[in-house]
Design a protein that fits this description.
The chain is of the alpha/beta class and 339 residues long. The chain has 12 helices and 10 strands. The strands form 2 sheets. Strands 3-2-1-4-6-5 form a 6-stranded mixed beta sheet, sandwiched between helices. Strands 7-10-9-8 form a 4-stranded antiparallel beta sheet. The longest helix is centred in the last third of the chain and has 28 residues. It is found in: Cytoplasm.
Length: 339
């Protein structure tokens, strides 16, 4: 396997990538970096080129062409130029972002991007894709989820590693600040005359994340310098707390005499739990059945109905529908089935 000499890159950017790769159970034959052409993903590609070469891993660059901006073709060309600089293959995928999904352009584009990345990973036998989210992105995500009323798991924000559609996505830079990355991108431009693209939506306050970045963040910067590190640390603490609560919920679920497929449990055993643990294990059980988290109102209604049932659970036919599933109770057993 041959490698080109990648451009210089600060050790502070390379080391987290190297550690993320070394932490994998086995050394992968190849990895990919999702590259938009912006400064963050471009510098992640450069750092990954250093780390991959040191470990004898083949590196690919995945670029998703959304076609949402008039400059999209130019961005793709910039990524191709970056791949040539690094001596690695660039693989592109063109996607169409539906404008009528009801989820908003940001969410629809994100879903299309992940679907395309998963397809590329399958086609090219890649099990691990690196994403360039950094500490400032993490802090913005925490703020957005707080304002949207997210629960504990939501406040944990982005995880360093997550598996989706059979692909493990790694975020090695959640502890790295935006300024360090941008400084490295400026040095790359000076060294190799390669310039990252600028997505205008990143500064357009009509988009939610851009509004946080352009309107809220400057106020926080002035009043609480370094707030991003504080908020990102909060996310790590929330992730640890969420893991502990999941372990408690798993123990509680095991105490509820679950069925072999875990699709049912004992109503009487559930009632023996405290109110808070009743609610938490119910959320945990629903999540285990593939259901989206219920709203507070929907969960409160389900809790009320379960608590009001006859002790044997067969005085009436409970049926509460949620996310394509129906929760029912009969003869003292609560179970879930397709609605």
């Amino acid at each position: 396997m041959s490698f080109s000499d990648p451009p210089d890159c600060p050790a502070a950017l390379i080391q987290p990538v190297r550690e993320a790769l070394l932490a994998l159970p086995a050394r992968p034959p190849r990895i990919a970096v999702a590259v938009s052409g912006g400064a963050d993903s471009a510098m992640l590609a450069v750092a990954a080129a250093h780390a991959a070469r040191a470990q004898g891993i083949e590196l690919l660059l995945f670029h998703i062409h959304h076609g949402l901006q008039s400059m999209a073709d130019d961005w793709a060309a910039q990524v191709e130029a970056l791949g040539a600089m690094l001596g690695t293959h660039v693989i592109q995928s063109r996607v169409r972002v539906p404008g009528d999904s009801g989820k908003g352009v940001e969410a629809a584009a994100r879903e299309a991007r992940y679907a395309a990345l998963a397809a590329l990973a399958r086609d090219h036998a890649v099990a691990h894709v690196l994403l360039a989210h950094h500490r400032d992105d993490q802090a913005e995500t925490v703020l957005l989820r707080l304002l949207r009323g997210a629960g504990l798991h939501g406040m944990a924000a982005m995880a360093p590693a997550v598996t989706r559609d059979g692909v493990q996505y790694l975020r090695p830079w959640l502890g790295v600040g935006r300024q360090a990355i941008r400084s490295a991108a400026q040095a790359l431009a000076a060294e190799r005359d390669w310039h990252p693209v600028e997505d205008p939506t990143n500064a357009d306050p009509r988009y939610t994340r851009a509004a946080v970045r352009t309107r809220l963040a400057p106020v926080l910067d002035e009043r609480w310098p370094g707030w991003q590190a504080i908020v990102a640390r909060h996310a790590r603490h929330m992730a640890e707390a969420a893991q502990v609560l999941d372990e408690v919920a798993e123990a509680d679920l095991q105490s509820l005499e679950p069925g072999p497929d875990r699709a049912s449990f004992s109503l009487a055993a559930w009632r023996a739990l405290s109110s808070a643990r009743q609610a938490h294990v119910l959320r945990y059980w629903l999540a285990g059945q593939g259901a989206a988290m219920p709203s507070d109102a929907r969960l409160a209604d389900l809790l009320r109905q379960l608590r009001q049932l006859h002790a044997l659970g067969h005085d009436r036919q409970l049926r509460v529908e949620h996310a394509g599933l129906a929760v029912r109770c009969h003869r003292g057993r609560v179970w879930v089935e397709p609605a």
